[in-house]
Amino acid sequence: MNRLISISTYILALLWALPFLGIVYMAFKDASEQGYSLTFRNFIDAWNAAPFGQYYLNTIIIVIAILCVQLITITLAAYAFARMNFVAKGFTFMLILIQIMIPSDVLIFPNSNTIAQLGIYDTKLAITIPYFISAFGIFLLRQTFKGIPYELEEAAKMEGCNRLQIIRNVYIPLAKPTYLAFGLISVSTQWSNFLWPLIITDSDENRPLTVGLSMFAKASDSGAQWGIVCAGTLFIIFPLLLAFLLFQKQFVSSFMQSGIK
Amino acid sequence: MRRSNIVKENLTAWVFLLPSLIFLVMFTLYPILSTFISSFYKSDLSTIEPIFIGFDNYTIMMKDEVFRKAFINNVWFTIGTVPTSVCLGLLLAILVNRTFVGKALSRVFFFYPVVIPMVAVSFIWLFFYTPDYGMINSILKLIGFEELNLLGNSDTALLSIIMMVIWKEAGFFMIFYLAALQNIPKDLIEAARMDGASKWRQFRSVIFPLLMPTTLFSTIIATTNAFKTVDQLVVMTQGGPNNASNLLLYYIYENTFRFMDYGRAATVTVIVLMIMVSIAAIQFFTTDKKIHYS
Known about the structure:
The complex is a heterodimer.
Chain A: H1 2-27, H2 41-49, H3 52-83, H4 89-101, H5 108-118, H6 124-128, H7 135-146, H8 150-158, H9 163-174, H10 176-192, H11 195-200, H12 209-219, H13 226-246, H14 248-257
Chain B: H1 2-38, E1 41-42, E2 51-52, H2 56-63, H3 65-96, H4 103-115, H5 118-129, H6 135-142, H7 157-183, H8 186-194, H9 199-210, H10 212-228, H11 231-236, H12 248-257, H13 262-286, H14 289-292
Antiparallel strand pairs in B: 1-2
Helix pairs in contact in B: 1-13, 3-7, 3-10, 4-7, 7-10, 8-9, 10-13, 12-13
């Protein structure tokens, strides 16, 4: 019985692996030869056929810019919600939670209007700005901050630290695991983001990898080019998969926390 | 002294919240409001200034074939992806929650689709499905069957996309179930076993009820995903053939950027917003917050 379960697990795992193995197979296949011979040509051709270097750079800039701004906004907001008393606290928190309920993905129509009105269409700012606040991040960090003993804050106060110094010296160091979890989620979500940058960009200068790949694949829309498209797809996947394999535990636990996203 | 402290604390708190609130208003709160308002106006390429038309956008939309198609497709898409990927997540979790050779590798294989961008997944499966060169057709040809154009046929396009989404999402729910399974006290199962309960009975009467919060919560997430992710349509079918795989968010995208029918785009956005709010309300009333939000 146990053996039977193991075998079915292997079969399922293989089935799950198959699509990925399929494109790896195609990406390394030499299309000009009969049968199968290994080649790197598809990768070289793909890299030369579209400005993938630029796309990589764009994605990295976008991902880092969003993360940096988010870290500042969520830290300040999470601290206020966790440790300060102010007018309309509950109401403000409810407003923030609306963003968890209604993800910006479904607001493409009004948000693209806003971008047009701001006159920042086809800029990296337009791609990043809707993600500068993360209700999920505020929520997550607020929970962590609340769990930090208040005595530590008082001790820092006695030593003459102001609020910002308290946040920097007490809260941020103790919330490192939460920051790591949030960072992994933010980076992998933004690395994968597609529809919004597709709508809001119109030049290779600003396109991230995901949009660049779809443009590139559309242009080379024929069967003979499949090896190149597969190679291009691997360009996007590779950094994420590598990060996942290296930090498996952190990835899984961060994705678990992302459940409330 | 005391009073000035309160004022100061209020001021500081609002300064801390200001950056978040600015972006929240700009890209969540104001857009929701403005969409509601736009949905009462006629606004497209033939109207120079938006004209107030009350509920006309809604009544016209209800009669629109493509909208109805996209709506019904979205319902089928939800029915097709949600229970299957959640159940499969549970099954996978049970399968890998044992000690066996290759346990770690199996988990990696089940989870990696979660990490990969939807666009990349779409290209992988496009290659899978494509006629002539695709993997499925090569296999079909090999065993002597006729070729199938799965994405190009209105009977199979949506189903093909559903299969792909299940493949991508099941691993996500697997990790939640895995954590939940590991949290079940061993002595509970032991007690059931001592009472002579069969494996199936143990699962049905002890394990499954304890997994209920995870099931509810996974169902909510899967349902939300079914309405907010349409990357795959841009890559694979463009909603076609003949709108057979069109979904609500993609229909919004088409109305905004292809047909420039802004009144329609706003109206459909309102519908999607209402669906999102209903999902959140269901979550609010069914989930015991102590369990998941620790």
